[in-house]
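Sample entry was shown:
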Amino acid sequence: MTIKKGLSYKEAINEIEDILQQIENEDPDVDQLSEKVKRLSTLVSWCREKLHNTEDEIEKILKEIEKK
């Protein structure tokens, strides 16, 4: 599964919440459940990477501030 270009972190979190709600409130068949879980996995991995990259950027900025 791919992440659409320009997807924001907030949009990804909202999609994760929507999928989880669908799984909890509906009775998806096995094929649907499998696709939903794959999408969740892709989104969660993307969010983790986004958070890690943001953390790295913040640390870099803070180091630059300390040098001044």
